[in-house]
Amino acid sequence: MPRLGRRPLLGLGLLATFAAPSLARAATLTGASLDPARTRTRLTLAVEGEQRWSVRAQADPMRLVIQLPGAAWRGTATLAGRGPVRAGRFNAAEDELVLDLASPALPMAGPARAGHIVIDITRVAAARFDAVVRAGRNVLAGTVRGERALPLVVLDPGHGGRDPGAIGTTGVHEKRIVLQAALELKRRLEAARICRVVLTRSRDVFIPLAERVEIAQRRDAALFVSLHADSAPGARGASVYTLSETASDAMSAALAQRENRADLAGGLSLPSVSPDVQRILLSLMRQETRVGSNRLARLAVRELGEEVQLLPNTHREAAFVVLKSPEVPSALVELGFLSDPRDEAALQQPAHRARLSLALSRAVKQWLESASTG
Ligand SMILES: [Zn+2]
Predict the structure, then answer these.
(1) Which domains, from first to last, does the chain contain?
(2) Ligand 1 centroid to 323 CA: how many Å?
(3) Residue 267: what pLDDT?
(4) Which first-to-last residue range defines the signal peptide (predicted)?
(5) d(CA 291, ligand 1 centre) in Å
């Protein structure tokens, strides 16, 4: 899988955190159950990633505490009691699962199961329980390795809220078209079970550009795809953009310049990032990220070309703020241009949008496949 390990956050104006050491990412616990068996009660924890664990016994109140250093918890944080266990709850502050006991009981390793911590809890005499508590050692410990979660793809429908984006000759707003396209692409990618998908916005709301970038950075996304349908005189067809300090052509430069003003349209003042800082951010953008972004653009151009008309010189470059993540391979797709009446008509047809989302889902799939093998 691509992109393991939590990356330090680096959004616009967050340069200082770049030097912070990468934290090893602990596992995510995705499920827990307590099941009664004839002579024991079985605790099963489902784990994504690698997780160390250990169990201690405590008296007054009588408890078994399963320590799970650094674990993130997803799903229900409480467990209904079974057998000698009265109740269980995950204590996030201490990274531990606390099992309150109704009667003395001790853990034994359960049957090995990939991606799961399995602990069998058996009733014991009070004297034996007390002796284990007094010894003060871990009763049981281990490490489990579960499958990684599917990689995360962040889709970024441009504009929103007070910022309509481009407006077509019939009054169609770009913000609406790109949100529909993003939702369709999300459905398609999730149905293929190749990745998880998060949208920077799933409603008609204004999200500042830097925040869009940070959503992908913070969640350690594998890919970031921004969707637009802007206006550009004389332009028609789909096109794909990656980040470059110098634009590949005047049209791309103008597009980036207009896009980068989206924060103004949304009511924010321009981000207070000096040109120097912008240059530093750009030079920090890793070669690896650039290679990944370019590969995504090539795949998107190839797949879009199978389905819809393309703008000539389909892969272009410009300094889009929304593509400035130094860690996450990113591309901006112009699905078409609302300034062109034929594109405007096509973008409103569900069949045309289905072809776009099919092409982009194939590009994302191929990108993820080559990332996991290479
Ligand atoms: Zn746009």
Answers:
(1) 28-146 (2.60.40.3500), 152-373 (3.40.630.40)
(2) 13
(3) 64
(4) 1-26
(5) 24
